[in-house]
Structures are given as C-alpha cells and as structure tokens.
User: Fold SOCS box domain-containing protein from Euphydryas editha.
Amino acid sequence: MDTFMEFYFDEVFSTMQRDGLNERFKRRELVEYFNTVIAGCAKGQNKSDNATCKSFVSSALRYHNRCKTDNGDVCLMGKYHNLLYIAMKLAFDWSLQDNGTVAALLDELYACEGTFERIFLGAIFGTSAPYFLAGWKSDFMDKEENVHALVYFLDHATNAGLEYRDGIQSYRFIDVPLESCGRASPVRVVIQMGAAEILMILLRFGARITSDHVSSNPIESILDRLKEYNRKYPYELVTCLKLSLRAVPRINLTVDKAALKHLELPNDYNYQRKLILEKYGEILEDHLVPSSRCGLRPVELKHLCRCQIRQTLWENFELPFGIQKLPIPMSLKKYLDLFDD
Assistant:
C-alpha cells in the first residue's frame, strides 16, 4: 500500500490541477477510488481493512506534511489540503481504530485551519448549509452521517486527550471555536439552533457550558430566547434548557460589576436569586427551571455529586464512556450520563 501511494502521489496527484479537488463531487470520486484500492490491497496482501486504511491515511499525512515543509511550513491549500478531507472521510468510512493516526489527522487539520468546522457544521446544519456559511460543502453524505462522523471523531479526540492552544486559551477538540460562526463554541451554536439531539451528544462528551467572548452563559441565552415567545415555548428550546441544566450545578447569571460593588462575593447567593426572579419570573412560574437550580432552594446533593463526578471524569478524558467503568447500578450510570433528570 505504501509503495502504491508513493507512486500515486508522485505520478498522478502531482499532475492534478491545484483546484482539482475543490468541488465536493471530485473529492467523492477520489474517495470511491481509494475505497476500491483499500479493499483490493487488503485482500491481495491478506491484511485487515483497518491496517490498509491506516497505511493510506498515514501516507496522505506524510505527503501533506512533506509539501507543507517544502513550502516553509505553510499549507499549500488547494488539492494538498483537500487531501486531508479525503483522508478524514476514508478514516470514518472504514472506522479506522488506530487512535494515534486519527489524532495525527485531527492535529494536522487544526494546524492548517485553526478550527474543526468541517466536522461540526455538517452535523449541526446539514450537508449543504455550510456552503452558505463558509463556502464549502460537507464531505459526508447526509446529516445523519455527519452526526455519526462527529461522534467518531469526538471519541478519538477524547481517547487521545487532544487539546489545542489559541494564544493563551486552551481548548479541547469539542470546544474549539467555529470561525464561520463568529468564533462561537460548538455548544453555543447548537443551542442557538435549538438542536437538542446534537446538544445531548456534546454535553455527554463534556462540552463546556460557560460564557465566552461571544456572549454570556449559554443557559442565559436560552432563557433570553424563551422570554421572546410570550410563554408559548418551542419544544426544542425547552429541551435544550433541560439538558443544559443537567450538566451544571446551578444557573449563574451574568451580573453588572457596578451593581456588585456593595456585595462581598461576585456571585452573591441572594443577588443571584433576586436577579433571576426579576429577569425570568414567568419562566420560573411555568416550572421550566427547577427551583433548586436557580437559587430559590438548595441544590440536590444527588445532582451536585453528578456534576462533581462528571468533572473528575472530564479532567481524565473519560467522558462519556468512563461512566460505564464505574461500579454503580445502571440507573446511576444513566443519571451520570445525562439521560435522566
């Protein structure tokens, strides 16, 4: 396989037009070609499909890195960069299990782009919507395959313990900002879309629900949007709120620093309670937020334990599959995995 790939890159790929893989159908044609090659080489060399797919992805990475190095360590883009998307699709198609190879592919994508939009946006918006946001179309067949691919790469990124630095800020794969969405985090974009299914996936894998440079706490954004519906709340948005509340100990609202000068603590309990009653009284009356999650009464010990255990698992890159390793009843495993309130 390695010999074939070296010949292909030197004799065939090198003659291809620089923009020859810009169109999605061209990339898909090449994916189908390499699918056939991988199947044939695996059978002819009596190797597993996974081992043969690993050889292709490794060869693609070596070729991309060699071209990048020859260009002063700057990606040449065009067909050279699109080769990474082909490797990404093949790794998913063949369910490549070699964690080091998949992690190296993700690292190279981030080194060139500084984002993982090609993995996240298709799962959030579908296959064609990213074209209007970022000028490209997803390499996966439909939204369902995009979601499966997202889970596949989330799993590998977690197992590899991948983290990426942007200036002084460090992100895990799941929290890397999306450039075409104003550098909002994936979880914030999902909440804005009201995509409860994708939100559940991100929360299970440990996506952070925190404020960032884009706006305030995402839960606060949900509450603000719910206020706009005059108590006729959309189901998907309510579901996003309920899922989000499972992943945090309690709601902490963004407060005016000037208003806190007279307080001893910046998250003063009484002030938070007063603020949430003033801003979201109708939502509380409609029982969309449990009183224990907004400061009206103490948070349940069971829920606090869930948050602390999940935090410990997150710190050790064990969400969500590490939950299944715990010696506890299945009902508690489902509770820790955010399936139950």
Notes: The beta strands are 163-166, 169-172. The two ends are 51 Å apart (CA to CA). The CA atoms of residues 144 and 261 lie 50 Å apart. The chain is about 55% helix and 0% strand.
